[in-house]
Design a protein that fits this description.
3-stranded antiparallel β-sheet, 5 strands, 40% helix
Length: 146
């Protein structure tokens, strides 16, 4: 089992995104994970752009764990514009950062949403209902087994 902490600090010094390789400059927020897996400690730093891509991929795939190769393949095949932005270090030719990917619209239905929300209310309701049905079927199977 892996225990980890996920934080979103603001950089005080330069860091390198461990997914895309771009430099995270002082003043930019980024995602930092630190964990302990069996007897090994690890850290991982990721720019906000790559973090948004990871969230979109995990939502799309239904996986709770993510794999860089699968994410890059998914981007290249289904989201070529986002893939090209990632390959360019998430920067326009003039050096300005491109907007964070996969917002402000709902990834599933295209409804406008605000902030860092990943689901709009109708899609969230459908997701909650799907999970509830799944839990009910598991509960029924457990009752039959006992």
């Amino acid at each position: 089992m892996t225990d980890y902490v996920w934080t979103a600090p603001v950089a005080r010094k330069r860091h390198r995104c461990q997914m895309c390789g771009r430099v995270i400059l002082p003043g930019e927020s980024y995602q930092r994970m630190a964990g302990l897996d069996r007897c090994e400690a690890w850290t991982f730093k990721c720019c906000d752009h790559c973090s948004r891509v990871v969230h979109a991929w995990t939502r799309h795939s239904g996986e709770s764990e993510w794999y860089e190769d699968a994410i890059w393949d998914w981007l290249a095949d289904g989201h070529p514009t986002v893939y090209a932005a990632a390959q360019a270090g998430w920067r326009y030719p003039d050096g300005e950062l491109v907007p964070l990917p996969f917002q402000p619209r709902c990834f599933t239905c295209g409804t406008f949403i605000g902030g860092d929300a990943l689901w709009c209310p109708p899609c969230d309701r459908a997701r909650i209902d799907r999970i509830a049905r799944s839990l009910e079927s598991i509960s029924a199977e457990l009752r039959r087994a006992s």
